[in-house]
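Fill-in record for UBP42 hydrolase.
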Amino acid sequence: EGMAPPKRILFPREKICMVWQQRQSAGAGLYNVGNTCFLNAVLQCLTYTPPLANYLLSREHSQACHQQGFCMMCIMEAHVNKVLHSPVSAILPLAVLRVFRCIGGHFQPGREEDAHDFLCCTVNAMQRACLSASSDLDLSSQSTTIVCQIFGGFLRSRAFGFFLPYCCFSCKAISDSYKAFLDIPLDIKAASSLTAALEDFVRPEHLDGENCYKCTTCKKNVVASKRFTVHCAPKVLTVCLKRFDCFTGGKISKVVEYPEYLDLRPYMSQAEGEPLHYSLYAVLVHSGVSCHGGHYFCYTKASNGLWYQMDDESVELCCLDTALRQQAYVLFYAR
C-alpha cells in the first residue's frame, strides 16, 4: 500500500527457506589475527542466519555468478560452507580477510573496528553483488534480491496534524514517505528493554516552531507530528542497540532486556492483525568501556537448536538464559 510494485523480481520471496535444511552442531571457530574479533563475531552471526545459510550452502549463487573480481556473495558462500563443514575446531577466515578493504574502504587492517559498521558494510556488499548482473533497475526491483528479501523491510514516516490523520488542517493532505532498511538502530538512553526502545521508536515526534512541518501539498508550515512505523516487516529483523556516543566514543553500559520471542505487530503501520512472531537466534556482544577498544563475541543458535558462545576460536555450548543476559549490541531475530 502506497508503494510502487517492483517491475522485476530478482529472487522470489517464496523461495526463501526459514527452517534449517541441514541439522548439525555448531561449526568451527574463527582465529583472531589481531583486533579482528569484530569481524569474527559478525561472520558467525551471519553464518547462523538460517535463510542465508540455506541459500549459501546450496551454492546456488556461485553456480550462476559471472562477476569478475570481488563478489561478496561468493566469498560468504565459501566462508559459510567452510565453517559448517570443517573437520577442525577453528579456521582462519582468509576469504574475508583478503577482501577486507573491499568491504569498506575506511577499514584499516590491525585496527579495532565497530562491529555494527562492519555488519552494515558486509550486508551492503552482498547486496551490491546481487545487483551486479542487473542494470537500470527501479528501487522497488532492487529490493527483491536474496539479501533484501531476507534482511530488508520498509519504514513508513507519516506526518499528521490536529485533524487526524491529516497532516495539514488547511488542505487535509496526508504525508507518507517510505524508506528501505536492512537493520533498525534503536536509541536506548531512556529504555530498559528492547520493547521499550521499540515503543520509543514509533512514538510520534512533535514538530513546531522552527521545526514546523512544511506541507508537501500546500507548501504551508504547519504544527504537526511525525511517526515512524515498520511498514513491511523483514524475514530477519536485525536490531542495533545504540550503545556508543558518536562524539565522545563513550558507551552506554546499562542493562537492556531482550526476549527470546518478539511480536513486531504493535510497531507496524497496521498495528491490528495477526501477531508477527520473531525468534532470537544470535546476540552480538561488546565488552569494554568505549567504542575505541574492548572485545566482541557472540552467542548463536545452531541448526541443532542449541546455543553456543562463540569467542574467536572458542565455540562452547551454553544455555539460553546465558544468551539472554548479555550486554547486547546487535540482536538478530528470525520470523
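KEY FINDING: The chain has a mean pLDDT of 90.
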